[in-house]
Design a protein that fits this description.
about 270 residues; alpha/beta; six-stranded parallel β-sheet; two-stranded antiparallel ribbon; 8 strands
């Protein structure tokens, strides 16, 4: 009897983290019977060290280039994947799901889609250093240790923060930051997602209450944007977690909750 084909799961990282930050998730999902895929953004090398050496390879890359790149990978797969994304990657998986390119999606602390007007002071502090200079739209930029501490790792110890910064941080294009921040002011904004699609697969939005980069109020507002769709949309908050929740020491809980949600939706491996 032929071996059953494994369901692919595509993990999409966000700004300033390399795809290798998903390696723990990939191993856990492989153990659970799925086939994990960890694609890079356009222009990002396969290793953290190389990404740090060659930041200009991804300078100027925007939301549509990232989404199209992942869509092209999906179309070459034997079947539609489950999509899991963090931060800007959380925006990307929503964009792909809205196009029916995934069986389901889990968007963790997702970048704000067009229609989300909620703001939070912590988010402004996390991004103002980059958004204050329009020339950054054509550059790849990096977080310094203090920026990473505030924006990502405020809910963990300094030692764990330093370990994550050393292991996974890379330069990233600043263009997606501008596109998400200005999404509500541009008619044909690339930050638009088809939230009304009633035929798409189920969507789970996860957030961390202590997140400074994508505060929980933004994720709750994103959840409300799907109110006109009859497709399944759910929201889950972690009260003690910050933006680093997919790669800090608490990631196994999110992975297990994701697997349980997929099983409940009839998408277990």
């Amino acid at each position: 009897m032929a071996k059953a084909e494994r369901t692919p799961v595509m993990f999409v990282h966000g700004l300033w983290l390399h795809s290798s930050s998903w390696e723990g998730w990939a191993e856990r999902f492989r153990e659970a019977g799925y086939e994990p895929i960890l694609p890079e953004w356009p222009g990002v090398p396969n290793s953290v060290a190389e990404a740090r050496k060659h930041p200009d390879q991804q300078a100027g890359v925007g939301l549509m280039e990232i989404s199209t790149h992942h869509a092209d990978i999906i179309r070459k797969l034997p079947s539609k994947p489950i999509l899991i994304g963090h931060s800007v990657g959380g925006f990307i998986v929503q964009h792909l799901l809205g196009q029916d390119l995934g069986r389901a999606a889990i968007a963790i602390c997702p970048g704000q889609i067009k229609g989300v007007f909620a703001i939070a002071p912590a988010q402004a502090r996390s991004t103002i250093a980059f958004l204050s200079n329009p020339a950054n739209t054509k550059r790849a930029v990096s977080l310094n240790p203090a920026q990473f501490r505030f924006g990502f790792a405020n809910a963990v110890s300094q030692q764990e923060c330093d370990e994550m910064y050393s292991k996974w941080t890379i330069p990233s294009p600043a263009r997606p930051l501008f596109q998400l921040a200005l999404g509500n002011f541009i008619p044909n904004s690339p930050a638009k997602v088809d939230t009304a699609n009633a035929k798409r697969g189920p969507l789970l939005l996860m957030s961390g209450k202590l997140d400074h980069t994508v505060p929980d109020v933004l994720t709750r507002s994103t959840f409300k944007q799907y109110r006109n769709s009859s497709a399944s949309t759910e929201y889950k908050r972690y009260d003690d977690r910050g933006h680093s929740l997919i790669c800090d020491s608490g990631w196994p809980q999110l992975a297990e909750d994701s697997l349980a949600w997929l099983k409940a939706k009839g998408l277990g491996a």
